[in-house]
Design brief:
This protein is of the alpha+beta class. Helix content is about 30%, strand content about 15%.
Length: about 55
């Protein structure tokens, strides 16, 4: 299984989690999979860093 199948009334295990694709980020809490969004790109951090260099 590449990603969790939703709509199924089951709890997923860590073994299920290990079989999911690495293309998407997931976390497993109490057997329920949650998609993790990536943090937005922080332009302010880049500006601060570029002033130090």
């Amino acid at each position: 299984m590449s990603v969790p199948e939703f709509g199924l009334k089951r709890k997923y295990t860590y073994q299920d989690y290990l079989r999911w694709s690495d293309d998407e980020r997931w976390e497993l809490i109490d057997g329920v999979p949650y998609a993790i969004s990536l943090a937005p790109f922080d332009v302010c951090s880049i500006k601060i860093y570029s002033k130090r260099v």
